[in-house]
Amino acid sequence: MVDSLKKPAFEEMRPGVKVPSKETILTPRFYTTDFDEMAKMDISVNEDELLAILEEFRADYNRHHFVRDEEFAQSWEHIDGETRRLFVEFLERSCTAEFSGFLLYKELGRRLKDKSPVLAECFNLMSRDEARHAGFLNKAMSDFNLSLDLGFLTKSRKYTFFKPKFIFYATYLSEKIGYWRYITIYRHLEAHPEDRIYPIFRFFENWCQDENRHGDFFDAIMRAKPEFLNDWQAKLWSRFFLLSVFATMYLNDIQRADFYASIGLNARDYDKYVIEKTNETSGRVFPVILDVEDPQFYERLEVCVKNNEKLTAIANSNQPGFVKSLQKLPLYLSNGWQFLKLYLMKPIETASMQSSVR
Questions:
Q1: Mean pLDDT value of segment 110-135
Q2: Does residue 148 contact residue 138 with C-beta atoms inside 8 Å?
Q3: Pick from 26, 64, 151, 169: most CB atoms within 10 A?
């Protein structure tokens, strides 16, 4: 077939600008919150730790890190076919997630400036980090002749509202799981440089330290508000957010197992390790964590993986819309049932029943 007749791998809004991936329950989300409630928070019980973290943010250890070097200055046409498509999707999802953090943190910094200057500066400096990450990822996409219109994303994406308490749960987990994802890939490729198909992976060691510092900030915020962590509701919400984050990552990554294979990783083994380490880390602040070593945990996730494969096949079929809906319904119900059973699994009590700052 003549190249000019080939269907392009990605739909473009205009030449070189990719149409953003369709929003689904598994795509990175944009968040907003109750800024007035956030501004009224009393953080004095843990202000010393927050001030120490602020000094780390001010030090800006990575200010010279995100600079493209000569290794980027080459053609990447040898990364082609399905590997190229999955790699561009990886860059897009990562860029979108980092940009989501930038928008939230920037708005928090602006809204809290006159009411909570310590928190405002922390959020502004974290937004600086997230902007660098998103820009670096978007520039990487340009090596594959594509980019994201981040201004368009700002205006077109739906924003999910969470009260401050839940913003802290969600962003803490997002930053900590980001740390374990990046450092695990970095360590694997450090040991197996032959699998490093693109230079961006060399940056992941320093990069993930930004994620770790951000997670520490949200850890300190939650421990400044012990009422967020020391009642029965906190146990329920901890389980909910841990399960949501772990299940979303697992289902996404298994769909893209070929990408992880292209850098020498088994997607299931990689995800299980990241989940184990993030779960363990979360035990330092959450009152309960999930029992991810119970065989049922992954058995139920694998049922959802199979259901999602069937849902994709139905969506890509030529059946009428109402037939597709009828075919999808039992699969959605099955996924819901698996998530409910996962949520109801007995959690593990942690040593961090935060009645006071440790």
A1: 94
A2: yes
A3: 169
